[in-house]
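Repro:
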Amino acid sequence: MVSSQPVQQNPQTDETVLLSARMEADAARGDWESVEAIATRLRSAVMQVPAEERRHAVLALQRSLENVRAQAMEARGEVTQKLSAIRRGKDATRAYSDTGGDDSTSRATGGDF
C-alpha cells in the first residue's frame, strides 16, 4: 500500500535533479564546456544522495544523460556535415587549380577564355 504522505526529498536529491535539468538546457544551447563541468559535479552529487533516494536520482540523471547524448550526436552530425562541405570545397579548388583553370591564367591574358 502506498503512503499518502508526501515524500520528503533530501537537498542532495534536489541538487542532482536541478543539475541534470541544467545540463540538458546547456546541451540544447551547445554549451559543451558547461555540460562537462556539470557532469563532474553530478558524479559527486549522486554519491551524496541518501541510499534510499539514490534510485530516483539515478533514474532522473539517466533520462537527462540520454537527452544530452542525443543533443551531442545531433551536434556531431552538424559538425561532420560542415567539415565535409569544407573538404569538398578544398578538393574542388585543388582540382580546379590542378587543371590549370585558376584565375592567374585569366588575369595574365587580360580576359576570360
